[in-house]
Design goal:
This protein has 356 residues and is an alpha+beta fold. The chain has helices at 46-58, 95-98, 102-121, 181-196, 219-222, 228-237, 248-259, and strands at residues 8-10, 16-17, 21-28, 33-40, 67-72, 78-84, 124-125, 134-136, 142-144, 151-152, 266-270, 273-277, 283-288, 292-298, 303-310, 312-314, 317-318, 328-333, 343-349. It has three domains: 8-84, 2-Layer Sandwich (Phosphorylase Kinase, domain 1); 95-259, Orthogonal Bundle (Transferase(Phosphotransferase), domain 1), CATH 1.10.510.10; 266-349, no CATH class. Strands 1, 2, 3, 4, 5 and 6 form a six-stranded antiparallel beta sheet that branches. A six-stranded antiparallel beta sheet has the order 12-11-19-18-16-17, with no helix packed on it. A hairpin with a 4-residue loop joins strand 14 and strand 15. Helix 3 runs antiparallel to helix 4 (181-196), helix 3 runs antiparallel to helix 7 and helix 6 (228-237) packs antiparallel against helix 7 (248-259). The longest helix has 20 residues, at 102-121. The protein is elongated. The mean pLDDT is 93.
Length: 356
């Protein structure tokens, strides 16, 4: 039995055990809060504990469980760690509400992907992303935990295909598979299915998964409640070709835009005059006779040029119908040889935040 420092007192002797580690609720008497003490069931698994300490120290995010303390014995050997006690909800039954709450569904996926953005930016691959490793804090923030088999870098080749079956990407089912960020994205796609339905597609149970057929579209269970762009994004996560999967950052950006639908504002400025695109004014036309003009629309997610007349440039690149106006840019009306007879219009867009 591990002796905890006097700072901590046992709340219950009941242990929550996983594949390798055990977790015990304890009280931090100094800070007056409940926390968890995590330790390994076998001394042979101490490497996983050290690995978790290193990963949690390198990747900090409100969507990643916090590590508070490292417990050592008198010889300085690590005995366990003190981590955040997530007392919020788990997600094994979330499918019961997903189809009737598509915004809530997307918010959960968005927060999971936010954790992956931070991890992947630090070159950390979680390797065991699944609903069992996701829970909310008392404030309702979705957090990812259990980093025991996470790896750092892009050249790690697995000896033992550790992880969780069904969440494992097809490319893992070979000897000496190289662990990649795309495998986390595949697991994110499986999470999307598990959050939406109790019936996991049978092809995900094949070894390797999707050997006989591709997984159905998420739209088959979300029943048209998601925008096509979002459906395509989630479906792409489960592509058998890792190259076709989106990055965590792309995933977050797309989901965020749809969570703040109709809340953006785009503003054109010319000679102190403002022309604004928003949900209340979805179309703006700008025209300089004999030079050029555009029509731009706001579809609730993005600002798009739908028609161009004459010579118009966005940051020196020719504007065409279908061009997207991003963040902040300058529109130039007229060819370069017109010099001072050209017209310049600035465009900027707001960045509404997702309210969790």
């Amino acid at each position: 039995m591990i002796n905890l420092p006097d700072r901590y007192s046992t709340v219950t002797n009941t242990l929550m055990s996983g594949g390798f580690g055990s977790v015990q609720p304890v009280r931090d008497n100094f800070l007056g809060r409940d926390v968890l003490f995590k330790f390994m069931q076998s001394g042979n698994d101490d490497g996983q504990l050290r690995n978790e300490i290193q990963m949690l120290a390198k990747a900090r995010s409100k969507h990643i469980v916090e590590i508070y303390d490292v417990i050592k014995d008198d010889d300085g050997a690590v005995q366990g760690i003190i981590i955040e006690h997530l007392k919020g909800r788990s997600f094994e039954d979330f499918h019961l509400e997903a189809v009737n709450d598509p915004a809530g569904y997307l918010k959960v996926l968005y927060q999971i992907a936010q954790a992956l953005v931070v991890l992947h930016a630090a070159d950390i691959i979680h390797r065991d992303l699944k609903l069992d490793n996701i829970k909310t804090s008392t404030a309702g923030v979705v957090k990812l935990f259990d980093f025991g088999i996470s790896v750092e870098g892009t050249d790690y080749h697995t000896v033992l295909n550790r992880g969780t079956f069904v969440y494992a990407a097809p490319e893992l089912f070979v000897s000496g598979a190289c662990i990649t960020k795309e495998m986390d994205i595949y697991a994110l796609g499986v999470c999307a299915w598990a959050l939406a339905s109790a019936n996991t597609p049978a092809v995900l149970f094949e070894r390797p998964p999707q050997s006989s057929a591709r997984v159905p579209s998420i739209d088959t269970v979300m029943s048209g409640k998601l925008a096509k762009e979002v459906v395509d994004l989630i479906d792409a996560c489960l592509s058998t070709d890792p190259v076709r999967r989106p990055t965590a950052k792309v995933f977050c950006d797309v989901i965020q835009n749809h969570l703040v639908r109709d809340e953006h504002r785009g503003t054109f400025v010319y000679n102190e005059k403002l022309y604004q695109l928003s949900k209340d004014n979805r179309r703006v036309g700008l025209k300089f006779p004999g030079i050029g003009g555009i029509v731009a629309v706001y579809d609730g997610v993005r600002f798009e040029i739908t028609s161009v007349e004459g010579d118009v440039y966005i940051n020196n690149s020719a504007a065409i119908a279908g061009s997207i106006l991003h963040n902040a840019c300058v529109l130039t009306f007229g060819r370069a040889e017109l010099k001072s007879n050209r017209y310049w219009v600035t465009f900027s867009s707001s960045h509404p935040e997702v309210i969790l």
